Amino acid sequence: MASENNPTFMGVDYGAKLAGTTAAAMVKNNTLQVWQSARGQDADEFLLQLIQDERPGVVFIDAPLTLPKVYSQAPYTSNADFFYRACDREVQAMSPMFIGGLTARAIKLGTILAKQGIAMLETYPAQLAHLLLPNERGYKKDLATMPVIAQLLQDQIKYTFAQTPRDWHQFDALLAWFSGYRHVNGQAILYGDAHEGTIIV
């Protein structure tokens, strides 16, 4: 497992397969580096290759890794929640069913990495932004506010950003990484039910 002096974990903002919106962040050479897929590039192949190259022990990803618990129960009951898990409701995240294709890709990716001894855990950058930047209304709204918001985040992280994030996907990758840092150092908040799925922030 990572130590504070050697954080070998990665944060990932996970996007549509070919949109160029998947970004990852990890400490390398004592600075926080960011990588991003290119438009038209297979995001899953990009991520798998990056993980092979950088060898994080844990990947904290902004994507559902489980389904609502009703789908593991039989018979179904009509009053069960078929759309949301408890953790989704707590952080006001989208339903794993609504973004079904992305959910399926993330679960498959986690399965591939588990065979390689790399854990994948779920996070939700928007919730960390809400906790760390409660008065910042520019988040994900106006790219012109990025330098200011990035500096607010940088002020709370001991590793220097290798570069100012260029877009909100890179910024969310940094937030995903910081959730991992908080988790490793016993500072994270866990949302949801361990039997159904938890979100680490």
Describe the fold and architecture.
The chain has 201 residues and is of the alpha/beta class. The chain has a single domain, classed as Nucleotidyltransferase, domain 5. It is built from 6 helices and 8 strands. It has a 6-stranded mixed sheet with strand order 5-4-1-2-3-6. A two-stranded antiparallel sheet has the order 7-8. 36% of the residues are buried. The model has no long low-confidence stretch (mean pLDDT 95).
What kind of sheet is the major sheet? 6 strands, mixed
Give me the count of strands.
Answer: 8
Radius of gyration: 17 Å
Structural class of the helices, strands and pairings?
alpha/beta
Low-pLDDT runs: none
Mean pLDDT over the residues? 95
- Strand arrangement within the widest β-sheet reads 5-4-1-2-3-6
Pattern of helices and strands: EEEHEHHEHHEHEE
Compute the number of helices.
6
Strand residue percentage: 15-25%
CATH architecture: 2-Layer Sandwich
What's the domain count? 1
Assign an overall shape.
globular
| CATH fold group | Nucleotidyltransferase, domain 5
CATH level-1 class: Alpha Beta
Helical proportion?
A: 25-40%
Secondary-structure blueprint:
Elements: E1 9-13, E2 23-28, E3 31-36, H1 43-54, E4 58-62, H2 86-91, H3 100-115, E5 119-122, H4 125-132, H5 146-154, E6 160-161, H6 168-184, E7 190-193, E8 197-200
Parallel strand pairs: 1-4, 3-6, 4-5
Antiparallel strand pairs: 1-2, 2-3, 7-8
